[in-house]
Amino acid sequence: MAQNLGFKDIKDLTRVSAESDNIEALMGLARTNIYAVTAELQQTRYSHFFSEKYKENNTSFIPELFFMVRSHAPPSFKLMLQRLTRSIILRSSLNISGRGSKGKSRHRIRYFPGIPEFDLDQTLFNYIQNGNRLNNYDDIIGFERRQRKRHVVLMLDTSGSMFGKLLLNAALTTSVLSYAMVKDFISIILFNSEPYVMKSLTEENPLPKLIDQILESEAVGFTNISSALKRGLKELKKIPNGNRKIGILITDGDYNRGDHPAIIARQFPRLHVINMPSEIQKERITHGVSICQQIAQAGRGFFIPVSDFKEIPRALMRLLSKI
């Protein structure tokens, strides 16, 4: 029905939808004529409306609208939606990551007053070795947790037509990784036909700025997984051997440019794969899953499939807890 309405009609219905808080109707109008919806919502009197929507923790309305209007909206309106989208991403990622990935290993140490953890097996062994007695504090063994510095390169597939979902996922996943690995070193690479380094292992890039860069990027082109892996490997080679170096690839696996990705995957110290969903025909989905499994096997890493984009950040957290 909305397809038969004129510009002014859709503009008026947008006002009615916003006033009645009917987001489903509003987004339906946006898909019909985004220009008319933008013309209405860009008015300053809707600032309170967007402020109230932002307060709803489960809202996906603002990010979706941002990606729909970002190419043509007036700068002030686009900037407002981008800032709200960025804040939603930061809020969501902090909820997902919690305190972050512990990333700590246990090391045996001699007893000292107040030590939080004991190695009962080793202490019991010393007790038996000493003739069923503990001669001094040195016979009591404890554990100390030390932060294990990890160097992680995250490679995110942004190829295809679902640019809104892909870039939102990339921004949210990047934010989750940054919070979870605040004491480690990370690199972020987006890729389609070519890889784009958003953050290298050796540079500082504030998270809000990094999210803005991702939100402003383009998710188009072919899928060249091997070029992304080569660029990720180049990042890891900057780090001296002996350090913990890890690659994480997030893709649907359906590459159509470059060599077979498993060839490059073998060169990684460790490469894990999160297989994200695809909206292409079933045969290609099966092919993509198989490719992702082969990449993970070649990289001696975990293969983690997800059925929805929303599952990716939590899948990443589960992976980080294992590595």
Descriptive account of the structure:
The chain is α/β, with parallel strands linked by helices. It has 3 domains: 2-94, no CATH class; 104-147, no CATH class; 150-322, Rossmann fold, CATH 3.40.50. The chain is 48% helix and 16% strand. The chain contains 13 helices and 9 strands. It has a 6-stranded mixed beta sheet with strand order 6-5-4-7-8-9, sandwiched between helices. A 3-stranded antiparallel beta sheet has the order 1-3-2, covered by helices on one side. The radius of gyration is 25 Å and the shape is elongated.
SSE blueprint and pairings:
Blueprint (H helix, E strand, L loop, with lengths): L6 H13 L3 H10 L1 H8 L5 H9 L5 H9 L5 H23 L6 E7 L6 E2 L1 H10 L11 E7 L2 E8 L5 H18 L4 E7 L3 E5 L7 H9 L9 H12 L7 E8 L9 H5 L5 E5 L6 H17 L4 E3 L6 H11 L1
Parallel strand pairs: 4-5, 4-7, 7-8, 8-9
Antiparallel strand pairs: 1-3, 2-3, 5-6
